[in-house]
Amino acid sequence: MEQKNMTRRGFVGAAAGVAAFTVVPRHVVAGSGSAAPSEKINIAGVGVGGQGGHDIGQLDSQNIVALCDVDWRHAAGCFKRYPNAKQYKDFREMLDKEDKHIDGVVVGTPDHMHAIVSMAAIKRGKHVYCEKPLTHTVREARMLAEAAREAKVATQMGNQGQAGEEVRLLCETIWDGAIGQVREVHVWTDRPLNGTNNWYWPQGVGRPGGQDPVPETLDWDLWIGPAPMRPYVGNRVYHPFVWRGWWDFGTGALGDIGCHSLSPVFRALKLGHPTSVEACCTLVNNETYPVASRVTYEFPARGDLAPVTLHWYDGGMKPPRPPELEDGRRWDTNGALFIGDKGKMYGGRLLPESRQRDYGRPPQKLERSPGHYIEWVIACKGGKPAGSNFPDHAGLLAQVVLLGNVALRPALKADKYLGTKLLWDGDKFEFTNVPEANQYLTKEYRAGWAI
Amino acid sequence: MIDSIDRRKFLGGAAGAVAAFTVVPRSVLGGAGGQPPSEKLNLAAIGIGGMGSSNINQCGSENFVALCDVDDGYAGKVFDRFPAAKKYKDFRVMLDKEDKNIDGVIVATPDHTHGVVGMACIQHGKHIYLQKPLAHSIYEVRKLTEAAREAKVQTQMGNQGHSSEEIRMLSEWIADGAIGPVHEVYAWSDRPVGGDPWSDFPVMARPKDTPDVPKTLDWDLWLGPVQHRPYHPIYHPMSWRGFWDFGTGALGDMGCHILDPAFWVLKLGQPTRVEATTTHYQPEVASETYPRAAIIRYEFPARGDMPPVKLTWSDGRLMPPRPRDLEPGRRLDGNGALLIGEKGTIMHGSHGAGGVRIIPETKMRAYKRPEKTVPRVRGGQSGHEQDWIRACKDGKPASSSFEYGGPLTEMVLLGVLAMRFKDTPLDWDAANLNVTNLPEAEKYIHPPFRDGWSL
């Protein structure tokens, strides 16, 4: 938490200059080709009431030309900030009508819509900034990565931390051999709970009965999108934000935080597809993700790099406190621990702290980022690809994160699967030892919806 | 789940035997000294509505002269089966009035009264069969163990797996070096299976409604040494296990079964360090009930030529990572343990190392089993109660006497203690019952009793 927030604050700080820009309507109506560096790009937002609205705020050095949300009340704040942007409820209509005015689309919808919206944009040749996790299913993540590569559009997933200094220092320290070969990594979060106090969103609960009148400002059918229709229930059961805990709409604690906190692990250890994924969890049902889980991935050797076992914990579970962590130092509610042959890193620093002080800084090998959002803008203008672009980073990362959710599926938690390790063939895109698990790599789309 | 199957097996296995006996009042009034095997013991039982009923069935060879339960509704069926036995609600009254008529007592009350009831029996010089975990706090366990030793009464803790054939096989294999020195143990339980108010292990804040106490129940006696709170049906008869004040959670419930084999065969003794991590929940829930899931990590120092051991317990359906030696297609049980040695791995199930195997199976088949050197308990796991009867008569300790069951329970309850201080390693001085790095743990090691109650 602390770390994450600090990172976010760091970003916001770094991007504060952005506020100085004013929105200048773009005179030249352009296609989705690369705009010249001096020129502003035209951005549309889909799902702007929550994090999507924040993303738009970070990008409003550019032209915000259209905003779309299925709930205009939820989106009102964002709409108000950009009075010149056209307003839509249906992203399909927006893309049709504004096709010629849009260079890039920012997707901040609930998870179950990410791939549908992003793919529609990519098919129109639009650049895409999509919130994490990239998609709702493993197959969607793979498809988006492939589509983005073929369409040669600029992409970026919303894991802001990837642009930070911390991840660069982590990579450079590990690549410098400071902790030797890394064979074991532990990553954990307190989500879906916020500390010991409050739910971020509920998990481990069943579906409520009854239904409430749909607010006039909300198009519930559009909100449901490709998911199976269900009655609207108010009081923050599904919308806004708490959709994260439901299988049909969100990706649970792992989906929410995994793309943030596993991104540095993928970078630093140059991970590809795992060879296996195995999960256990508290009692889980077909409605919501479990209260707590442990997911273990095994990655094969990569060149000179040793095989790695990656353990994920959520719901407040943590790995054992390392003896090298000095008494009195905080063992955070969200964190990552890298265990190497010659040492350990926690919170991006060598353990114990005296070792970090002796070590100092690693030789710089990585270019520093101008900022997560600006990375994407630069890429849209024909510059260097953004750090968490779909084909090179986000697609794989999201696939692997979501493989963990497959292993948590209630059907695969039945007694006969207890302790089962799902063997994964990333090239063939299938589980080789439990064929019935493969159905959960994708999902059925409601009639009228397809990716 | 597994436990209820075992219970059914017990009931089934014992049904015929019990029905055949009639209660014959014993003419010779005896003290707690040894009886000749031909003579029947006069037994009493306290807390007979639940697991106690099953224990009684297994002791059907003896005379039941007195039965005690704070709820004669819940215990009604058991009372009815023994019309000749005197009925009591208050164990103190029973022990006073029947002192001269009782040789031994079976105690199967909720965890929070094990200590006071057990101690009263011992102080009356009675042999005692006491359900697991031995008591609710580590201090009570230590005191019970010491008192039983001094009183020279025969004792048995209700971890029936300890009388099994398999736990003895495991002991012989480990001594034989079947998997080499053991450095790591993983144990797990699928309890609590629910996490909802209607399951056996609720995860909830303290109930606010105050229904009337059933006429059959003496609520004040049910509470015993615990601070008073209003009656609520969620506590009694079963769900007390999930509440800090009354039960010991999934670990307390199942740890004395599942950790028993490793504790015994590896001669673990007491850990020097323990650390727990648990699911998060709201403070009003956290202060009342055990978490939905916990992982407890124990560190045991070297013992003689045996290396230090790291033992990891998982509950709430959390499990250890799949062991490398387990062949494809083979699953883990909902409850079980893994002993990881330098030369191999042993896997077993819940009670008494049930289903113990070296994995993979090819290695098990190739293994030449050593001779049986560890004495067997007659009847194995189902003979656990009878082993206590035997001890009462011949004066030789039962398989899981408090000398063994006490330290086993202390180790288990230390893990429960660690859950009070999640993600904080506790340095444990077992000799002095002291967490050396956390003085505030004392209030859980030796919790205060309600006025009028003492050990």
Describe the structure.
Chain A has 451 residues and is of the alpha/beta class. Chain A contains 13 helices and 17 strands. Chain A has helices at 2-14, 51-58, 76-81, 91-98, 111-123, 138-151, 165-175, 220-224, 252-261, 263-269, 353-359, 372-380, 390-407, and strands at residues 42-46, 63-68, 86-88, 104-107, 127-130, 155-157, 182-188, 193-194, 198-199, 276-281, 293-299, 308-314, 335-340, 343-346, 349-351, 422-425, 430-431. Chain A is globular and about 60 Å long. In chain A, 51% of the residues are buried. The model of chain A is unreliable at 1-32 (pLDDT under 50). Chain B is of the alpha/beta class and 455 residues long. Chain B is built from 15 helices and 15 strands. In chain B, 52% of the residues are buried. Chains A and B meet through strand 10 and strand 12 of A and strand 8 of B.
Q: How would you sum up the global shape of chain B?
A: globular
Radius of gyration of chain A: 22 Å
Gap between N and C termini of chain A, in Å? Answer: 34 Å
Helix content class of chain B: 25-40%
Secondary structure tally, helices of chain A: 13
Entry summary:
The complex is a heterodimer of chains A (451) and B (455). Chain A is α/β, with parallel strands linked by helices.
Using brief descriptors, characterize the structure shown.
heterodimer; A: 451 residues; alpha/beta; 9-stranded mixed beta sheet; 6-stranded parallel beta sheet; 13 helices; 17 strands; 29% helix; globular; disordered N terminus; B: 455 residues; 15 helices; 31% helix; 16% strand
Q: Secondary-structure map with pairings?
A:
The complex is a heterodimer of chains A (451) and B (455).
Chain A: H1 2-14, E1 42-46, H2 51-58, E2 63-68, H3 76-81, E3 86-88, H4 91-98, E4 104-107, H5 111-123, E5 127-130, H6 138-151, E6 155-157, H7 165-175, E7 182-188, E8 193-194, E9 198-199, H8 220-224, H9 252-261, H10 263-269, E10 276-281, E11 293-299, E12 308-314, E13 335-340, E14 343-346, E15 349-351, H11 353-359, H12 372-380, H13 390-407, E16 422-425, E17 430-431
Parallel strand pairs in A: 1-2, 1-4, 2-3, 4-5, 5-6, 7-12
Antiparallel strand pairs in A: 7-13, 8-9, 10-11, 10-16, 11-12, 13-14, 14-15, 16-17
Helix pairs in contact in A: 5-6, 6-13, 7-10, 9-13
Chain B: H1 2-20, E1 42-46, H2 51-58, E2 63-68, H3 76-81, E3 86-88, H4 91-97, E4 104-107, H5 111-123, E5 127-130, H6 138-151, E6 155-157, H7 165-175, E7 182-188, H8 219-223, H9 249-258, H10 260-265, E8 273-278, H11 283-286, E9 294-300, E10 309-314, E11 336-341, E12 344-348, E13 357-359, H12 361-366, H13 384-394, H14 402-419, E14 426-429, E15 434-435, H15 442-445
Parallel strand pairs in B: 1-2, 1-4, 2-3, 4-5, 5-6, 7-10
Antiparallel strand pairs in B: 7-11, 8-9, 8-14, 9-10, 11-12, 12-13, 14-15
Helix pairs in contact in B: 1-2, 5-6, 6-14, 9-14
